[in-house]
Write a sequence for this structure.
């Protein structure tokens, strides 16, 4: 019988990526929605690590199961690493990402070359019923593009241009993105930590 692992997210785009990366015959990955869990966790942490741990521990305590949670976002150096931990809530949670993306592009109108440096950061936390917590971090470096490009992925993918690949993460096929992405790196590291 497959062991169930709860991943503390309701974001379907994120869940699709996670299932592709953590595909394992002995485990079934379920989202909060799939598991019928309705626990809202206030993300009050100041770092990606703090928020991931908050979410994992809260859902672990509510279910008595091992839980994985992530906190991820975009850090743009030119604007003091914004939106950072507020990436999902930047300009309001209901604001469409094309509006958020355009706002970031507009804020960088005077930034040239290296000044446009940015990265996606992802921290995965695993919380266990015995109180143990393990974290893993992954990043992908790039620069903010001058316009949105690509229809793959979600969120800020169309504006993070990765020079070594000559495209945004929004232009990358999912399999390629998962090989090099912040979430891919953090999940593979977590997989090692968990011995999967």
């Amino acid at each position: 019988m497959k062991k169930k692992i709860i991943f503390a997210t309701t974001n379907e785009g994120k869940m699709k990526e996670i299932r592709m990366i953590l595909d394992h015959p002995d485990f079934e990955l379920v989202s909060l929605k799939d598991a019928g869990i309705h626990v809202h966790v206030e993300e009050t942490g100041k770092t990606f690590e703090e928020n991931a741990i908050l979410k994992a521990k809260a859902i672990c305590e509510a279910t008595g199961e091992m839980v994985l949670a992530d906190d991820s976002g975009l850090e743009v150096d030119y604007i003091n690493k914004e939106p950072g931990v507020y990436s999902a809530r930047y300009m309001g949670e209901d604001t469409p990402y094309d509006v958020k993306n355009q706002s970031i592009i507009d804020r960088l109108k005077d930034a040239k070359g290296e000044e446009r440096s940015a990265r996606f950061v992802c921290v995965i936390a695993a919380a266990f019923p015995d109180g143990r917590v393990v974290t893993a971090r992954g990043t992908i470096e790039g620069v903010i593009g001058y316009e949105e490009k690509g229809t793959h992925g979600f969120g800020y993918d169309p504006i993070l241009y990765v020079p070594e690949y000559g495209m945004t993460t929004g232009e990358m096929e999912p399999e390629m993105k998962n090989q090099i992405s912040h979430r891919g790196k953090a999940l593979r590291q977590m997989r090692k930590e968990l011995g999967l």
Remarks:
- The domain at 3-193 is CATH 3.90.950.10 (Maf protein).
- The chain has a mean pLDDT of 93.
- The chain has six helices and eight strands.
- Helices lie at 12-21, 32-35, 48-63, 97-107, 174-180, 182-193.
